Amino acid sequence: MSKLLSLLLLFIVYAVGGWAQVDTSLDALLQKENDTSEDAVQVKLLRDIGFAYSRTSTEKAGVYYQKAIRLGTRIGELRYTGSTYTQLAILMANLSKEDSATYYLKKSMAIARILGVPKDLAGYYQGEGLVRKKFGNNVLALESFNKELGYLNASPDEVVPKAGTFMNLAGCYMNMGRFQRAVEMYLQALSLFESAGNQRGIAYCHNNIGTIYVELKQNGRAIYHLNKSLALKQRLSDSRGLMSTHLMLGRVLTSQGQYKEALLELHKGLELAKSLASRVNIYKSYWLNARAFKRLNDTPAVRQNYTKALSYATTDADRTLLRQELQAYLGKNRNAALADPTGIAKSALLVGLKEKLQVAKNTQDSMAMFTIYKQLAIHSAGTGAFETAYQYLIRYEDLQSNMYGPSVSLKVRQIENDFEIKKREQQILLLRKTKELNESRLQKQHLWLSSTAVFILFSIIITGLLINRYRILQRTKRLQEMEKMRRNIARDLHDEIGSTLSSIQIMSNIALRGPQQADPASQATLAKIARMSSHISENMREIVWAINPCNDNLGQTITHMRELAAQLLENDGIELSFKTVIQTPQKVLMPAIRKNLLMIFKEALNNARKYSSCKNIEVVLTQTGEQLQLQIEDYGIGFDMDQAVFGNGLHNMQERAKSVAGSIDISSALNQGTLIRLCVPLP
Question: 153 or 318, which is more confident?
Answer without folding.
Answer: 153
